[in-house]
Amino acid sequence: MLQIIDRRNDSKNKSAVNRNRFLRRFKGQIRKAVQDAIARRKIADIDNGEKVGIPSKDISEPQFHHGKGGRWSVVQPGNDRYLTGDEIERPEEGAGGRGSGASLDGEGLDDFVFTLSREEFLDIFFDDLALPHLIKTQLARITEYKRVRAGYTSTGVPANINVVRSLRGATGRRLAAGGPYRKTLRALHAELAELEECGAGDGERAAELRAEIARLLRRIETLPFIDTFDLRYNSRIRVPAPSTQAVMFCVMDVSGSMDEQKKRIAKRFFMLLYLFLTRTYEHIEIVFIRHHTLALEVDEDDFFRSRETGGTVVSSALELMLRIVRQRYASNVWNIYCAQASDGDNWEADSPKCRELLESSIVPLIQYYAYIEISEGEPQNLWREYARVMTSHPRRFAMQQIAGPEDIYPVFRELFRKSLA
Amino acid sequence: MSEMPQPLPTGSEWSFESLELYDREIGRVAREFGLDVYRHQLEVITAEQMMDAYASIGMPVYYHHWSFGKHFLSTEKGYKRGQMGLAYEIVINSDPCIVYLMEENTMPMQALVIAHAAYGHNSFFKGNYLFRTWTSAEAIVDYLVFARNVIAECEERYGEEEVEQLLDACHALMSVGVDRYKRPPKLSLNKEKERRKERESYLQSQVNDLWRTLPQGQEREAPQNERRFPEEPEENLLYFIEKNAPLLEPWQREIVRIVRKIGQYFYPQRQTQLMNEGWACFWHYTMLYHLYDRHQLVDGFMLEFLQHHTNVVFQAPFNSRRFGGINPYALGFAMWRDIQRICQEPTDEDREWFPNLAGGDWREAMDFAMRNFKDESFVAQYLSPRLMREFRLFNILDDPREPTLRVRAIHDEQGYRTLRQCLAEQYNLGSREPDIQVWNVDLRGERSLTLRHFKYQGRDLSESRDAVLKHVATLWGFPVRLEEQDEDGEVRYLTEVRIDRRKENQRP
User: Fold this and answer.
1) Residue A139: per-residue pLDDT
2) Domain containing A401: what range?
């Protein structure tokens, strides 16, 4: 007897276990691939899955095989040119006598390429940054819910009663329910008027009519003014939507002392802030400002690539940022975040000016200002001035001296705490 | 036919009812042609489940290992990019025979798969001598469940990493872990379970016995007096290790055994791919045409079916971009069709080459061939000159002593026999894969294990050998040596792998 079994709804992802084991086993290589990917990615792309490649030889499953050398004889189809005894030049690759079966798709020989899902990718990204678990789950979650109005319902909590709607309903109900009475009433009134006109206003019939009219009026009066049936409540539903818009300023020192390694750490720092913002805001713009002695607004490529020599004047960047904010991001519509990365160098006389700018103009305009100093040495004058800003604005200003990606998170601690509350 | 056959449902959408109707009609045709099959069971699955099945070599249940995850990822990548279609079907040599149908297939595809797998492959599994003697269709699924449970249990008890390491090592030896000539005992789940405990203690005692002689310092006896072990070289490395490796725990032996048993189960499939695929193609083609001739199938159905069919049995020439070796579906299909043709309409040439076939009953001839051959002998016996011409086969010889490659034979009168012999050799697993045997164990000295590679046609081992040897050493627990023996008997020492015992001892 034939059996047909529908397995489509059976356990999906039977291979999930095997997949996880694969990822775990090659964690080292995958992490490296992810790091390369991060260096390559645009900041706003952080939130996607990633195609990663790891060297095939690392993951090969060895078996005993024949190698090169030795006598090989091979039978092939489609002979269109050879006769017995013909001699053929050896193909370039040495002992290629095994046939022309060279790989057709150039890819896949050196690297084993596969796609990490968004969750897997972020997981590895977060691992480096030493994020607390709670934050990780919060950032990895896709949907933020927002309650929006969605008409009216007939059930709900008293706080949500919509008075106008409820009363309108009640009026309608009263009109409808009282209609038949009023119709009879009108007829009775007419008859009564007729009787009164004929002078029979004191007769038996008239008394009967009056009693009937009074009864009907009572009836109408007993119709409830408002019934539970009339109540209407404002309805709100949860829709997955972040709320508003934000702009994120990335400010980075590109003077000669910022080497590739430092820039890479800075990139992680910007990415983390971006990731946080995507969870909270619907629309995010990023402005890149790089500076040495002069500040310039650039696109992302130039931001991370270029390297200039010369001194450093941080205030130039802050001034530029302030100008951009005033021109393009009027602060009541935009939530402004700023992330600054530098190696701590600044022209001595400029640092007090920076503090001045921050305290008087910038900090009041923005939501959060995060500063990292990527250096191992003794903090310099800029750090000292910034530290004063931090004491006066502890909730909006954070700074940290860091050596590696795992130190980044504390800069945002306050920020994340706020959003979790 | 007693009753008028009903036309089968048309259209490309399939439904469970139409699957049943098609299966019934195809089954009826199969019976008319006298195909002997196991019961079968159709299972409808999604593309993703198909990829899952791929990753575990088509088995419905399998133990967990990272390598299956790797295979899944690479299949998934290919599929998503549209580089490859998934195979239309996977069929499992079990009783009942399980056939997977992919949800996305159209009705003509499902019909093709049913004919191909549920009747074609199925009858091959049931009839071919290799499958009959080497696999136990009724026990395999139960055994796989048993295997998965044992391995899961070991993971829980001894740690995933420990088990993974062991499986890595066993997988590396899977291809040299089969008995090629000795017939293995039938699988039986109950016996396996019952005897598992018993075997554990017994095996351990055997091993202990073997190693009873304690190494006696530096002093070594003359080689002549030493007991040689193994007395005969052993071709099945996994078997040898399971029985004799000195340091393995009983549970480790059990896992080695599981991998070995499963490898053995797949061995016939590797030896009969050409025949098996060709046979299944022949039958889906023949049976569906038969239904068409009886007006049970419409033209639209046949067009779609033929498009898939011709794709499957296409053979690209050697100089084409699409060439990837001889397509077993193409050659196999052509050979079975050819046997049918030789029986029905033999030419003079056929009469000369196949006097026993020409003019005979084709069903009988094919049945005989299906039952009693494997790829190598099948080609040697049945490849006809006509097919060699049709495929325009030619043979190239690559001899490192010569400056150039040489065309040794083409499809002409002088070349037929050479070609046939060479092609048959190409399907001989014994020469395609290196011949490596356990040669000696140094019982009294450092307990090293010596493997010997018997060279064939001067072919060396590939670089992966060092990695494999490391795995052997992990299993054996003592140094492993590799030597090679030329065709003229000269023996050469190749390499040796030692494992760092100190590290080993540090573990609790």
Assistant:
1) 61
2) 242-420
> How far apart (Å, rounded) are the C-alpha atoms in residues B28 and B1?
11
Domain that holds residue B425: 313-431
Neighbour-count burial of A271, counting CB atoms closer than 10 A to its CB (0-12 exposed, 13-18 middle, 19+ buried)? buried
Residue of B nearest to A77 (CA): B393
Number of domains in chain B: 3
Task: Tell me if A75 is assigned to some domain.
Answer: no
- Tell me the β-bridge partners of A3: B41
Instruction: Please give the order of strands across the beta sheet that includes B89-92.
Output: A3-6, B40-45, B97-102, B89-92
Is A382 found in the same domain as A357? yes
Q: What percent of chain A has pLDDT over 90?
A: 2
Check CB contact under 8 Å for B176 and A64: yes
Check: CB of residue B388 under 8 Å from CB of residue B411: yes
pLDDT at position A95 is 41
Give the confidence band of B73 by pLDDT, cuts at 50, 70, 90: confident
Tell me, yes or no, whether A79 lies in a domain. Answer: no
> Token pair 């797949």 is at which residue?
B266
Domains in chain A: how many in total? 3
Work out the end-to-end distance of chain B between its first and last CA atoms, rounded to an integer number of angstroms: 75
**Is ipTM strictly over 0.95?**
no
> Coil, strand or helix: which one is B194?
helix
Distance from CA of A97 to the nearest CA of B (A): 5
Average pLDDT over residues B475-498: 90
Residue A103's pLDDT band, with cuts at 50, 70 and 90, is very low
Which residue among A67, A84, A87 places its CB closest to the CB of B462?
A67
CA distance B203 to chain A (A): 27
Which tokens in the block code for residue A23? Answer: 């990822």
Strands of the sheet with B480-485, listed across from one edge? B435-441, B449-454, B480-485, B491-497
Flag whether residue B41 sits within 8 Å of chain A, measured between CB atoms.
Answer: yes
8 A C-beta contact, residue B89 and residue B113:
yes
Who contacts A327 (Cβ-Cβ below 8 Å, separation ≥6)? none
Establish if A137 belongs to a structural domain: no
Is B156 at the interface with chain A, CB within 8 A?
no
End-to-end CA distance of chain A: 63
Domain co-membership, A188 together with A302: no
